[in-house]
Amino acid sequence: MRLHHNRRPRTWPRRFAIACGIATVAVAGFGCARLAIRPDVTIGTASPTGIYYPLGASICRLFNLDTPRHRMRCVEEPSSGSVANVEALRRGRIDVGIVHSDVLADAVAGRASFASHGPATELRILFSGLDEVLTVVARRESGVRAIADLRGKRINIGDPGSRQRANIESAMTALGLARGDFAGVRELAPAAQNRAFCENEVDAIVYSVSHPNGLIHDVTHTCGGVLVEVAGPEIDRMLSEHREYERASIRGGSYENNPAVVRSFGVRAAIVATQAMSEITAYEITRAVFENFEAFRRLHPAFGTLEIADMIESSGRAPTHAGALRYYRERDWLP
Questions:
Q1: What number is the average pLDDT over the span 131-160?
Q2: Which pTM was predicted?
Q3: pLDDT, tens digit, for every residue of 149-203?
Q4: How far out from the chain centre does Cα 305 lie?
Q5: End-to-end CA distance of the chain
Q6: Superfamily assignment of 41-130+268-330 in CATH?
Q7: Class for the domain spanning 132-267
Q8: 247 strand-pairing partners
Q9: For residue 228, what are the β-bridge partners?
């Protein structure tokens, strides 16, 4: 972990800039220029086309508003996702990573992708972010309104390895449904499944996304799709046994033809550092978001659904960082 901002004197940027200026006149200016702009906080996000890249960018934007006061600077960088972010955190390549709750649970327990590395006991949560909700959309004329109604229908379960595939298979297992219980099963990626849905090749399609979502807007607005409840005793039992998942809901009115709240489940993004991050840095990152919370919610449509109470609840998957705890206690949000 790079904690250079806590060890160096506050006058280092000016002195280093002067040194680099001299070196530029000589021959080594390019290398110095690169070092001079090295950030104090690097946030590992995900693909630039997804929701977590703008989430990291928004955190950095608010953090950097206070750079004149705390003398630190933040940048976001793309990554291949949660597993890569955990690995980068453990190696000290990034300072903060956006990590899905199920991946975080695996990392802390040292299982699945992390079995060969052992438990990541050094991980610490700053705050939680967006839910990615298992979202089932059915054709209105299909009569499907709850997940159990999918039996005997034509469904798309998502492409292999995708989050929606993993989540719908967990729900199917909880309900005792196998592939043979459906009239047809497809394995299409999100964009392709929308086309198949609108051309009446399938009765239901699945996503694992934050809301509102453009693809779901298109399929509900253009092709009459309705959202399906993923709830009931079997789902409740699954959630009690699999703590990597969380109950979630989609607000009523988020999409055409869906005026009521729709219950489901999903995973939540966690904003994660390690215990090596200084308390003051963790405090300032946390402060930047919550002192500017309404501005933060306006930075992306999906952020408008976030609530402070949900964001400071870590579900026990990893300890909360001492710097974040300090801020929450100052606000009387936690004991």
A1: 95
A2: 0.80
A3: 999 999 999 998 888 999 999 999 999 999 999 999 999 998 899 999 999 999 9
A4: 14
A5: 29
A6: Periplasmic binding protein-like II (3.40.190.10)
A7: alpha beta
A8: 265
A9: 136
